[in-house]
Amino acid sequence: MTEPANDRTTIDIQGIVKHFGSQRVLDHLSLTVREAETLVIIGCSGCGKSVLLKHMIGILKPESGRVLVNGTDIVPLNDRQLLQICTQFGMVFQGAALFDSLDVWENVAFSLTEHSRMSFKEIDERVKDCLDLVGLSGVERKRPAELSGGMRKRVGVARAIAHKPKIILYDEPTTGLDPVMADTINDLVIRTRERMAVTSVAVTHDLHSAYRIADRIAMMANGKITTIGTPSQIQQSQDPGVRRFLDTSGAPSFTD
To answer: Which residues pair with 215 in a beta bridge?
Structure first.
């Protein structure tokens, strides 16, 4: 991946703090995400990566600090105001989070049928376009239970992009997949960004995936972003925490 052509900021997180009980999960954490880049957040399991992702979209709110999305602080917004901001986002959940009672077409069309005024024909065309993009044309009437894990992930991506979001969040996009299918998902993340010019944020502990899809990688530990840089910069970092994570993760070598 290459650096984005501009430095405009899409998401600007400023000193957020979050506790669960007595545990401080986010400790005055700050992070910026540039327009049209793919930023990957890495770190040990349980370090708060998914919690951070949920703050970006307003599912969780910090006790202090600000979360700006295209210049708007979403922390003080009420539910109606936040819903308007959320239309800018698409979210791909770790387990795909498809509705088991709905078929593939209904899953991908869900946000369009619930929150748009598009005609059935327009929705049908959009659903088929999205499924074609993720390589799943012709599976519209299958149920999630009939799909492999990789296919469910791809349907999750199709659903996330159906309303043409400006920002896509990926929560552990390759977890539970074999290496071949994981590479398919990595290629899909890259292709989606290139075709839709979206800003993408992914959290993962899969360094192979991080190296493949990232413009920049942010290392998270102790509730903070400790290091950030290009994949090659991260690999060459001498920060003890980064080196320990890379060494214990069996990280593959990175080639620009």
So the answer is: none
Are 1 and 190 in contact by the 8 Å Cβ rule? The answer is yes
SS (H, E, C) 148-182: CHHHHHHHHHHHHHCCCCCEEEEECCCCCCCHHHH
Cα 26 to Cα 47: distance, rounded to the nearest angstrom: 9
For the chain, which domains are there?
Answer: 1-88+168-177+190-256 (3.40.50.300), 98-164 (no CATH)
Radius of gyration of the chain (CA): 18
Residue 141 has pLDDT above 70, yes or no: yes
**What is d(CA 105, CA 146) in angstroms, rounded to the nearest whole number?**
13
Query: pTM of the entire structure?
Result: 0.89
pLDDT 10s digits, 201-250: 999 988 999 999 999 999 999 999 999 999 999 999 988 888 888 888 76
CA dihedral in degrees (85, 132, 121, 149; nearest 10)? -70
Contact 21, 224 (CB under 8 A): no
